[in-house]
Amino acid sequence: TSSSLEVLAALALDDDEFARHMCVADDNNVPEFYSTYVQGVLAVIKLNAQLEFECLWREHTRTKVALSVLSDQLSLKIVSLSASIASSALWSRAKVRTSVLEKAIPPVLLKLVSLDTLLERVPTAYLQALFSSFLASRFVYEHGLDSGEFGFFEYIQQYV
């Protein structure tokens, strides 16, 4: 997560913006954006860990399956769903795309660079991967391992 969000910032900013906002010349002169972005990335990592733990604990309580086994199953489900989302037409739906990306991209980055500018600068394949993995992980964390296609249909309505 942290490295992909660092790459996202590098792709979203032009050379001058990157130099001004992401480059640390010395420890006494850290750009405010960089500090805020790092805190935002840490918040994303903590939230993802919390959501994953809560899902694993619910599944473990329900099934009594070992957490290590459930963790593998959870990862496989997220990867599989992410691939299905990537091959679907969801990305082409502008309202869904915008709603998801506004939640998946750290707010401090969207404050510096508009979503429209970000969509112009960042390769579409990168944003589609972010879109798909965000939707898949959030759905699985919320609905668990036994969630089906109709559950995803209901879930996606919040982005429509």
Proportion of helical residues: over 70%
Q: Please state the structural category.
A: mainly alpha
Mean pLDDT: 94
Question: Uncertain segments of ≥5 residues (pLDDT<50)?
Answer: none
Got a strand count? 0
Order of helices and strands: HHHHHHHHH
Give the number of helices.
9
Q: Label the overall shape.
A: globular
Strand content: under 5%
Distance between the termini: 26 Å
Q: Summarize the main sheet.
A: none
Rg: 17 Å
Described by its quaternary structure, the protein is single chain
How would you describe this structure to a colleague?
The protein has 160 residues and is mostly helical. Helix content is 77%, strand content 0%. The chain has 9 helices and no strands. The longest helix is centred in the N-terminal third of the chain and has 32 residues, at 32-63. The mean pLDDT is 94.
Give the helices and strands, then pairings.
Elements (H helix, E strand, L loop, with lengths): L1 H11 L2 H8 L9 H32 L3 H20 L7 H11 L2 H6 L2 H7 L2 H20 L5 H8 L4
Helix pairs in contact: 3-4, 3-8, 4-8, 5-8
Q: Could you give a quick summary of the protein structure above?
A:
By secondary structure, the protein is mostly helical.
